[in-house]
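To whoever is covering the structure queue this week,

Two jobs came back overnight. Logging them here so there's a record in the thread.

Job A:
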Amino acid sequence: MLWDSYVSFVFFINKNLFCFSMAIEFMTKPYSDEQIIRSMHPLVKEWFLQKFKVFAPPQKFAILNVHSRINTLISSPTGSGKTLSAFLAIINELIGLSEHNLLEDKVYCVYISPLKALANDISRNLIEPLTEMEDFAGRKMPIRVGVRTGDTASSKKQSMLIKPPHILITTPESFAIMLTSTKFSEKLRDVQWCIVDEIHALASSKRGAHLALSLERLQTRTKFTRIGLSATVAPLEEVAKFLVGFDVESGKPRDCKIVDVNFAKQLDLKVLSPVKNLITATYDDISTETYKLIDQLVQSHKTTLIFTNTRSATERVVHHLKERFPKHYMKIEDAKEEASKKETIEIKETGEDIGGYKSLIGAHHGSLSKEHRLSVEEKLKKGELRVVVSSTSLELGIDIGYIDLVILLGSPKSVARALQRIGRSGHKLHDTAMGRIIVMDRDDLIECSVLLKAALEKKIDKIDIPHNCLDVLAQQILGIAIEEQRHIDDVLKIVRGSYNFHELSKENFLQIISYLVGEYASLEDRNVYAKVWYDKDTGMIGKKGKMTRVIYMTNIGTIPDETNIKVKVNNSLIGYIAEPFLERLRRNDIFVLGGNTYEFLHTKGMTAYVKATTNRPPTVPSWYSEMLPLSYDLALEIQKFRRLMEEHLRYDTRKEDIIDFIHSYLYVDEYSANSVYEYFKEQFLFAEIPHDKKIVIEHYSEGSRGDEKKIIFHTLFGRRVNDVLSRAFAFAVSRINKKDVEIGVSDNGFYVATNKSVQAARAFGVIKSDKLRQLMGFALDKTEVLNRRFRHCAARALMILRAYKGYTKSVGRQQSSSRLLLSAVKRISNEFPILEEARREVLEDLMDIKHAEEVLALVEKGEIQVKEVFTDIPTPFAFNMVAMGYADIMKMEDRLAFLRRMHNMVLAKIDMKQRKNE
């Protein structure tokens, strides 16, 4: 009887409730508990109500959607029940099928995760409820759950051909391989559901573009329901379109319901300053008080997760906490020895579980071994660690157990990232997510205060989803051709079904076909051969050559190989730098390695050639490639606050009134409000306050004779925008003055150093928004960033094979091949599609040319003013940009002393100016 009513209700839901057109639509009203319970199999209902009692917010919206085959994007915090929202209805149906012996040997559900570790977590979290349901039922369930990633043993993969998992857990790369495999692809011909977890992390990268095409390839075999699971992200409509793709005939997105319960969790957020005054405090004061504050927070909570913004900072924090507070972070394992060791613990060498001591703190970041990271995760889950310090590796939803506090050291640079990190705390439905942001300087204080305001007011920065990635397109068209022979128009239809390629031009598509069929015969000299055949009379395409499938399967994916670069002076090896750091270097850039300063000259293969230099501050700090860039949307919020502060100061508002405004606008304490006031007042009295309606170009001279001129552009639009603006400006100046200039880039602006006079405003005015792309094309030519990115794109497009006939090509050999290939491609056409893609990747994915064009357009319309100021010393807002150049050649205490000296000089100048006006 129960089963009959369940079946009839499912029929009612499927046939009656949802027979209308939806397109992309937000759900505003949840289903009733009664509706959801009536749809559940009696066994699932009994298990759920006994274990959970009530439905979590995302479950009230999503369970019946999944049950009724409605595409659904679920956006909610970690620990809010969204994973079970997706899986419960699927388990429900599989149990019903198994009871009636209708469960077939095929894959019903594909779950795709960006991380192998997350895939393993989900496997465990699925098997547990199934085991519990078996206990309830008193019998074995025939539902199989299997993980298939690059780490899965061949024997396990082979066994999946005989007994495929009903729920298959995998990664985007392994999913693409399975679609192309001759045997296992048959098991995917009737997939009913596909769940994409952490979709926000995939959508913003080429892995997402690759996955979007894989989903369209699956769509040609079976009409399946798509479910996306996401943390806090915006705009949700665009992520929903990315998830479901487009109906090519109508040109509209497929139907999708959006479940947005991101703010179901309460937030307890605060910005903390370790000292009363961030500019006058000494290094020792800030360092001591920061670690005291961290320790106090850790000791007053059960388990704490600390996020830094770099791997080196992660290691530094772990080291200092152990060294300063050994009794708190090193536990004596043998209780009998406790008395004898109590007195000597302070002089013990710190380390992982050594000398009878068990560490209560762990580090977790990408440079550590997989084994170490897994060990830290397990210890955290078991409650054996009080605190874990991470860079970005624990941002995604890996199961790490209960966390009751998250500390962010410095700004996370985006509202979405802050909420995602803080959302790791309170890992239960009704828990409060508790986050504390510790700031280290005045810019950090303002950035984090505005970020906290945006987070509490639900202003989430927008995600950037890449479009028309031609290297990914080449790889996936080859995959389609390997599957079976198809008409070229059908291939284009499959491609345009994905969000990332729905506006792909026929011209770009045919250019990639021309490359794949080997129309560029000269490329064969570089071992680039035809991979598909194309019959223009019939319009059919298919794979070419016996080795094509193997080449495709062994070179699939979008994540590039990277390695360290040798640094040499002539033929003497100096040391090594990371490849992403090399990408940032332009000829004549200055950087520090091993305590010495070098000028970058050029590269050859995987070796960078430099020359020693003295008395020149670095233009690219050593941490530059590791630091997260400030989001454009958060940058605009900070600039808006700057403008409001200028308005209050311009009208000579009393200090008390401005402090009241700061309190009403930002969520800060008294000390912080006073620091913000003093910072803005100093900038206002000394020069100009730059903001969203005003760019300030600041000129000052330094050097013993004042012969080195620095021009600072206060363009607080984030580093990705400033990277474009600075390179365009440097290129324009080099053409006007016939000399290269040094540039340094930060989130708050950029500076140019030269020993010649530069008409900065005139040169900046030469850069026009409608010509920026063309100008940047010239500026990027022959740069390291374009050379390296071309290698990445060529490898994705299978122009360079990373693996062939059992051999793996080293990154060095790939780069050598890439250099020769780039020359060959330029001889064919400077607009060769993969070269064009490398340019697009640099300008749109690495940098942010779209918003740089917007800024210049606003300047041209007069909506943003450009003002120049001339000073003897840097303005307060320029301090950190100036100090950035000295970060690698000064100790931290010397750098802070340098900032204090500049601050005192500014105060003296303001005092003199005010006396003159009296």
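Job B:
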Amino acid sequence: MRVTFFSYSFGCRVNEAEKIALDEKLFELGFIWNEKNPDFYIINSCSVTGKAEREVRQHIYQIRKKFPKATIIVTGCAATHWLRNNVSVSGVNHLIENKNKTEIPFIIQSFSPLSEYHIISHMRNNVVKKSMTEYPDQKSTVLDKSVLKHQFVKSDKFLNSGRLMVKIQDGCDRFCSYCIVPYLRGKPKSLKIKDIVQTINNYHLSSRAPKGRGDLYYKDCFVPQSGTRNDNGLSEVILTSINTACFGKDTGETLIQLIDAILKKTTIPKISFGSIHPWSITDEFLRYYQSIMPTNRFVPFFHIPIQSGSNTILKLMNRGYTKEEILKKLHRIKEINPKTFIGTDIIVGFPGETKKEFQETYEFLKSAPINKIHVFRFSLRPGTAAEKLIEVYGEPTPKEKRERSKLILELNKTISKRFSASLSK
């Protein structure tokens, strides 16, 4: 009997990177990927908004209906939130907190039929040997790890195009007034640079992986790429984190040192960030960005979550910068490379946002050198400082939030077309 699994990730790029790491560990332990009828269905959940949590619940309901016999395991921020607040979630077999996420492969092994098998991973020989009590075709088999790796690569849209997602940091200490993430992911924790470099250098895609394609897409934006891959089959590493500004706080290292080490100690053709946060974009960082432009290895893509273009709202959000400060940084990025793609996140309907504050945000977005806007309607997260802000300032109505969101989305269409036109010049 083959023990199978399938995994699904909601939310940010960090969740996706965690899913990739989890999938690979399960493959190494001998589990088989199965989309059609998995024994275990693992969900890496999101809780950044109420809508995100609802989507996770809906997915659980659909999966339980589709795979009634599957063991459903939910981890991630929503699972952590539900566990800490004793929230009952129908259809789930196991909820696992963020802090225990990396133990999931071994937890699954402990209560799965696979525990009846003798599984030994010989990583040095790149072979997984399995002596099984039951098997449809044979009683004993030796599976080359490359077969499992090919299966793994096929399952992931990023790896399938030669892009490796690596989580470099977790946790946050900013405590923005709307955000529940610091409560669910804890204090900042960074990987050491030498370990990140080792992860990139040691990662080998299967020889069966598709050859590099040329043009790729980032956050729905077309960015021309060379399509080249290094000897390990990789074309790009995407560095993900909860807050890039927290990278190295606990290890005494910096984001610039990390990029520099990857450029000098790996052969990865391209380096990019899933998101880079406003506090990371210092004058020193901008000078460094300009200095590495000639390498043509740093992808000119910056997703910077600004959240508002109103100083009043930015202060209520506890963001720690003004619109003038961030606008200066955005213009400097474009001066360094006019074809840099800049995306952002904007929250509409935050407590205290009147027509005046929304108009300030709208005008900021019209004038800023931003090429893509992701808009979110404010959603109160229990336990955050925004609860008190609602008591003091009130909150825009659902209708007002919808209307403001629509206006930003229409503006986004205009600026996206403008950027596309500029590339063709």
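Note for Job B: The mean pLDDT is 84.

Please reply-all if you pick these up so we don't duplicate work.
Q.
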